[in-house]
Amino acid sequence: MAEQGLELYLKRDDLLHPIISGNKWRKLKYILEHALSLKAQTIISMGGAYSNHLHALAYIGKQLGIKTKAKIRGERPAKLSPTLLDLIAWGMELEFVSRTDYRQLRQYKQHDALLDMQAGEYWLPEGGAMVLALQGVAEIIAEINIEYDALCVPCGTATTLAGLVSAAAEDKQILGFAALKGASFLEAEVQHLLNNQSCHNKQWLIQLDYHFGGFAKVKPELLDFIQQFEQQHQIQLEPVYTGKMLYGLYTLMQQGFFKSGQKIIAVHTGGLQGKRGFATL
Ligand SMILES: *Cc1c(COP(=O)(O)O)cnc(C)c1O
Asked: What residues are in contact with ligand 1 under a 6 Å CB criterion?
């Protein structure tokens, strides 16, 4: 992007670990520490058939010798996704729940909030959206050792964004790119997660226009962009989160959203296992 005089860097959280990639490790780190401190024996969570969150959780559970269970959105498909097969292989117990029941589960936001919990069980809300997750995400900021003006991140639950906002200096601009349609509710979620922290002077914003039709929906121009980016930079993207963020970010850069000379860092949040759901990539 030399013509706009902008510099773009990627923070490669996709390289953190071959399986527990990106922001899922950041979010889980202190949540797991908390679960272990409570002597939890089973962690129960929820997600879709391609969930990066469940993928990371199941693998970590196996490594730590903690039982994991998951409520999966929708009916059991005749052919299980590669992600679901991994979850089963790593010993996660799966329960398929209707879309209505799945939505209901989103109201339980605390580790002990699920109904009918047994002793030793720990409830982990969708996407690891807990205040405890922010602390791990904050470590991304601590690791950045170059000067920058703006930090960009894709948003699902916007927990990662909240963690970046909590830790970034006030002169930094934090930009989220919503992976889902109609995501204006995410602003309140971020406020809620930041509730106990004084972040009034922080500059953050969620771009709502780069969802490409909805969560995990794609369009040819997005897939073309991803293929071009991968060829040019030899860095893999996936279409659910990182592809949409970078498409949106490139568009903003071309539209003059940033001031000439600014340095921008985009967080590559990983999630490449989810790419297995897209045959054309
Ligand atoms: C889960 C995920 C996100 C979204 O993170 P939130 O904290 O839920 O906003 C972004 N990128 C990737 C690759 C993910 O797997």
From this structure: 22-24, 52-53, 127, 154-161, 241-242, 269-271
- Alpha-carbon distance of 204 to 210, in angstroms, equals 17
Take residue 10 and report the two structure tokens written for it. Answer: 């990627």
**Contact indicator for 255, 6 with CB cutoff of 8 Å:** no
Query: Tokens 């993928």 — which residue?
Result: 55
Spacing, Cα 3 to ligand 1 middle (Å): 31
Tokens at 34, concatenated? 């908390």
Lowest mean pLDDT among 94-103, 133-142, 188-197: 188-197
pLDDT of residue 201: 83
Sequence-separated (6 or more) residues with CB below 8 Å from residue 57 = 24, 28, 43, 45, 68, 70, 92, 124
Report field, pTM of the whole predicted structure over 0.85:
yes
